[in-house]
Amino acid sequence: MTESMEKEAFVVEKFEPVSVPPAFKTIDGVYFLSNLDLYQNFTISTLYCYKSETRTSNDNACEVIKQALAEVLVHYYPFAGRFDIGSEGKLVVNCTGEGAIFVEAVAYCDLDLLGNVTNLNFGMLGKLVHTYPISQNILELPLLTVQVTRFKCGGFVLGVANNHCMADGIAINDFLSSWAQIARGLPMTVFPFLDRSILSSRQPPEIEFPHQEFYEIKDVPKSVLAFKDEEFVRKSFCLKDKKLNHLRTLAMEDGKIEKCSNFTLVAAYAWRVMTEALQMEADHQTKLVFAVDLRSKFNPPLSKGFFGNAVFHPCCLCSAGELTSKPFSFAVKLVQDAIKSVTEEYARSAIDHYEVKGTNPFGAYTLFISSWTKLGFLDNDFGWGKPTQTTLGNPGPNLCFTLPQSEDKKDINILMVMASSLMNSFEGLIET
């Protein structure tokens, strides 16, 4: 959709937000947040598009989804609480049972008018998800907001916004899956495991590894500072199977890499292109940060349905000159080694590092990448079929997401978010 079409055709009327408490009284009191939760204190929003064959099929969508939300919150009751400051001065959840916020909205156009939602600008996406200004006191905000926007064609968009402290991508999808099952009148198949104490810091804390992911780049390149006042834009790129095979050949041609996953290829390649787009000085440090799931790293593994953040964010750190001049295998091996470094011992050391020093991996980075390919966001059927599209709804600096797609596709779609002029440079350098 062009900007002119947006102004003329895309009008969304939002009705008054209402609170949706759990359908039954739930446990009250203080709910613990781990250090892995606390350093991810920001709002993340996602959108899901549901098409329809008839213009009247979405008439009861809001009521069905809202009622199912009340029922699923009985199990996921921390989402119905509010943040508070605990006895140790850290953020906790006060399980007040106030509820999530629900907004019904109507768009006066057909869903097809949106086209590929991955390429919508943040102004349009903001009409499809209900969020609050960053300046608002976090202790007054809901932890979960839901917006259902009905379209003339009978389709609708589900917009979900939550504080990332509450859940990582896997936990959010468990929540969405249970919510969708209830909406369809089915029993939940996965119940949340709410106890996060297994991820508590040790007393006394033991920092056993260097943890360069917490290192904040001191000499931020002027090229990075130049973009800080620009608006964020988003664009999707499709890395074709042929391109991925070419990158794999490049990575393995000097014999230093025996095999590599698509994620390591995409991460190394996007990091390298971003570093080139920033025109960094050869001696400046460039840093790639990405998410690694910890559930299977622990012995025994974390419980099925673990609700919270069970991911850690290791990094790759080197000079820009090394990254851009050395063979591609150099970047791929850095990514592989960072992934291998994340063990239970490493994660516990990182949790203790945050306990002592309070710094986090998002302090300064060149690129952040996260894989959404296996999260299951495209599987959640509330009674109107599975979503045809899903996308990230909120902006942020230098982000890369590998997007969900059908299993038979070998190409990989990535969503990039960055300052507008940096996107122009990135787009000129990336080859798909």
Can you tag this structure with a few keywords?
432 residues, alpha+beta, seven-stranded mixed β-sheet, 18 strands, 21% strand
What does this structure look like?
The protein has helices spanning 3-9, 35-38, 61-75, 122-125, 169-183, 222-225, 241-252, 262-277, 320-325, 328-341, 344-357, 420-429, and strands at 12-14, 18-20, 30-31, 43-50, 82-85, 91-94, 100-107, 144-151, 156-163, 232-239, 285-290, 292-293, 311-312, 315-319, 367-371, 389-392, 399-402, 412-419. By secondary structure, the protein is an alpha+beta fold. The protein contains 12 helices and 18 strands. Residues 1-5 have low confidence and may be disordered. Helix 4 (122-125) links the parallel strand 7 (100-107) and strand 8 (144-151).
Q: How much helical structure, as a percent, in the residues?
A: 25-40%
What's the count of strands?
Answer: 18
The low-pLDDT segments are: 1-5
Number of helices: 12
What's the alpha carbon Rg, rounded to whole Å?
A: 22 Å
Shape: globular
Structural class comes to alpha+beta
List the helices and strands and how they pair.
Blueprint: H1 3-9, E1 12-14, E2 18-20, E3 30-31, H2 35-38, E4 43-50, H3 61-75, E5 82-85, E6 91-94, E7 100-107, H4 122-125, E8 144-151, E9 156-163, H5 169-183, H6 222-225, E10 232-239, H7 241-252, H8 262-277, E11 285-290, E12 292-293, E13 311-312, E14 315-319, H9 320-325, H10 328-341, H11 344-357, E15 367-371, E16 389-392, E17 399-402, E18 412-419, H12 420-429
Parallel strand pairs: 7-8, 11-15, 15-17
Antiparallel strand pairs: 1-7, 2-7, 3-6, 4-9, 4-16, 5-6, 8-9, 10-18, 11-14, 12-13, 17-18
